[in-house]
């Protein structure tokens, strides 16, 4: 709970330290006394956006400190995330706001970002302002109220089924898009694949064809060179091989006398053997006939291969790889239709699973809505809303995919009729602002807003009511104070009479300047303040105030017992 609040140089507040207890505390005072400033100061302590208007005129900074006790269990995880888990049981939130609008935030003296204070506020503070009822008009807020009592496994199952449906839908879209893209590319792939196949590609084909082309283009020159060489080797008078044989014949008789001669003889024999091997190759060249058609075919094929390289911006190995890839893609196109059919079946199964689980969730929401309307009835009756009829409408929308999502396939709408027999319309068209504010209070009172923070602040929730309705509001707030700390800003003596503690906010002049001050009231001082709230501090109003305090204590106790029962 909030055990201490210290405010310095904040708007008209000079220096105030407030000790707060558990249960319900009411803040009262004349209009303009500074009650809204107190709410702003509390918001500042919990990380609200800083404003230079918060700094009292003539000062360079304002400070707000809030001491929280008995909140460590609630904040353990959050404090651990920010390396603040070594703090003691009490937390001191401190905010310093400078005149230029900048601010600094601290927790137990350690500087932290303002968002840490905001995160703490989300967990421990419920600010029920005059305009909070606007949230009740939002469809997602209404759905959240209904879903609060529905088992988590049912809601989680719908969310998981929705994610699966999205995944299968995306997978089908990919298959279809790939298939369509394949159809567009299929004609080109088949044509290109046929062209590449006709080239009869293999490793080294370009070098081989180039050799054939060069040989054909220089055929006459090659034949002439081969003929001359063969003639020199074997056919002319004194040809090379004959002379070589003569050399061998001359050296043979003396080869054993010198090793050098013997080695030279071996070399000459090797030369003769090599020349003998060259001669058949040269005769084979002379036996060839010029083939113009083969030359043209080689030139044409080589040209086609180079054109394919240019067209596909690759080299010979890349062209061979492309041919292999195209063959694989064309083969895949033949099985693409089967893939699409299989994926459609998966999507249909995911859709049916989602709709089945969404239908079960819709049924649970209908039951939860009926129970909420029933639970609200006694609270509405006490809050002068006996004539208001509520209905929670759950519309299943299985045919409208735009309505599907992780929260199911329906819409949840709070409908209301101002009186029995009147037609039901949407809540915003029926309830006034004051009625909406009391409806929110009734929702909190009946426990519809689950996991409520430990500290609840109600800023003028009783606007526009009086009489017995005001007593009901006070009793309900006092009953809520049994489970959490409730801080109430009110103008109504009925509400104030139900509180366990009352703080008076007033203005006074100090050293020529107006300041807002706070004072925790004793029992006698509460009587005087209630008398003022009743319209004047006279003997009659004091007696009435005493009666109201006694009635408030008695009725709050009875209301608390009834609610807890």
What does this 3D model show about the protein?
With 565 residues, the protein is an alpha/beta fold. The chain folds into two domains: 2-129 and 424-564, P-loop containing nucleotide triphosphate hydrolases (Rossmann fold, 3-Layer(aba) Sandwich); 174-335, no CATH class. The protein has 17 helices and 15 strands. The chain has helices at residues 35-45, 72-81, 114-124, 139-147, 152-198, 205-217, 219-235, 240-251, 259-287, 292-312, 316-382, 427-430, 433-445, 467-480, 493-497, 523-534, 539-564, and strands at residues 2-10, 13-19, 24-28, 61-68, 91-98, 103-107, 110-112, 125-128, 389-396, 410-417, 425-426, 455-459, 485-489, 501-510, 513-520. The protein has a six-stranded antiparallel beta sheet with strand order 2-1-4-5-6-7. Strands 8-12-13-3-14-15 form a six-stranded mixed beta sheet. Strand 12 (455-459), helix 14 and strand 13 (485-489) form a beta-alpha-beta unit. Helix 6 crosses helix 10. The longest helix is centred in the middle third of the chain and has 67 residues, at 316-382.
Rg over CA atoms, rounded to whole Å, is 49 Å
CATH topology of the largest domain: Rossmann fold
Number of DSSP-assigned strands: 15
Q: Which class do the helix and strand fractions yield? A: alpha/beta
* The number of domains: 2
Helix content: 55-70%
Q: Class of the largest domain, according to the CATH hierarchy? A: Alpha Beta
CATH architecture call of the largest domain: 3-Layer(aba) Sandwich
So, the CATH homologous superfamily of the largest domain?
P-loop containing nucleotide triphosphate hydrolases
Largest sheet entry: 6 strands, antiparallel
User: What is the number of helices?
Assistant: 17
Report mean pLDDT, rounded to a whole number. 85
Note the beta-strand portion: 15-25%
- Please mark out the parts with pLDDT under 50 across 5 or more consecutive residues, or reply none: none
């Amino acid at each position: 709970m909030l055990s201490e609040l210290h405010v310095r140089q904040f708007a008209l507040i000079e220096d105030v330290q407030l000790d707060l207890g558990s249960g319900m505390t009411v803040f009262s005072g004349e209009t303009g006394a500074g009650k809204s400033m107190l709410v702003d100061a509390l918001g500042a302590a919990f990380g609200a956006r800083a404003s230079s208007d918060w700094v009292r005129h003539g000062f360079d900074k304002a400070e707000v400190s809030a001491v929280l006790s008995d909140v460590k269990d609630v904040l353990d995880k959050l404090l651990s995330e920010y390396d603040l888990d070594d703090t003691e049981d009490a937390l001191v939130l401190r905010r310093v706001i400078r005149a230029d609008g900048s601010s600094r935030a601290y927790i137990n003296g350690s500087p932290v970002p303002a968002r840490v204070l905001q995160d703490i506020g989300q967990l421990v503070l419920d600010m029920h302002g005059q305009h909070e009822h606007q949230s009740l008009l939002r469809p997602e807020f209404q759905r959240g109220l209904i879903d609060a009592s529905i088992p988590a496994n049912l809601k989680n199952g719908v969310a998981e089924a929705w994610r699966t449906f999205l995944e299968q839908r995306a997978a089908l879209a990919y298959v279809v898009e790939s298939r369509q893209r394949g159809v567009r590319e299929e004609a080109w792939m088949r044509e290109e694949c046929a062209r590449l196949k006709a080239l009869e590609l293999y490793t080294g084909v370009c070098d081989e064809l180039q050799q054939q082309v060069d040989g054909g283009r220089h055929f006459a020159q090659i034949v002439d060179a081969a003929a001359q060489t063969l003639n020199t080797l074997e056919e002319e008078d004194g040809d090379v091989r004959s002379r070589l044989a003569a050399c061998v014949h001359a050296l043979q008789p003396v080869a054993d006398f010198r090793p050098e001669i013997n080695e030279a003889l071996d070399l000459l024999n090797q030369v003769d053997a090599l020349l003998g091997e060259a001669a058949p190759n040269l005769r084979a060249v002379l036996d060839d006939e010029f083939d113009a058609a083969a030359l043209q075919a080689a030139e044409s094929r080589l040209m086609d291969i180079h054109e394919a390289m240019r067209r596909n911006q690759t080299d010979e190995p890349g062209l061979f790889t492309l041919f292999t890839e195209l063959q694989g893609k064309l083969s895949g196109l033949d099985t693409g239709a089967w893939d699409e059919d299989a994926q459609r079946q998966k999507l249909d199964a995911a859709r049916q699973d989602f709709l089945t689980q969404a239908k079960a969730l819709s049924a649970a929401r209908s039951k939860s809505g009926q129970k909420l309307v029933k639970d609200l009835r006694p609270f509405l009756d006490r809050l002068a809303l006996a004539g208001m009829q509520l209905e929670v409408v759950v519309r299943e929308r299985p045919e409208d995919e735009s309505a599907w999502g992780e929260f199911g396939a329906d819409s949840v709408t709070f409908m209301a009729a101002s009186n029995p027999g009147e037609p039901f319309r949407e809540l915003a068209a029926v309830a006034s602002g004051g009625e909406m504010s009391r409806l929110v209070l009734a929702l909190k009172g009946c426990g519809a807003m689950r996991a409520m923070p430990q500290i609840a602040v109600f800023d003028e929730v009783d606007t526009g009511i009086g009489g017995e309705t005001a007593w009901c509001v006070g009793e309900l707030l006092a009953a809520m104070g049994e489970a959490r700390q409730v801080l109430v800003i009110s103008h109504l003596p009925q509400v104030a009479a139900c509180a366990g503690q009352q703080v008076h906010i007033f203005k006074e002049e100090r050293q020529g300047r107006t300041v807002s001050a706070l004072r925790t009231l004793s029992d006698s001082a509460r009587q005087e303040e209630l008398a003022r709230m009743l319209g004047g501090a006279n003997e009659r109003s004091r007696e009435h105030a005493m009666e109201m305090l006694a009635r408030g204590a008695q009725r709050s106790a009875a209301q608390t017992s009834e609610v807890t029962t």
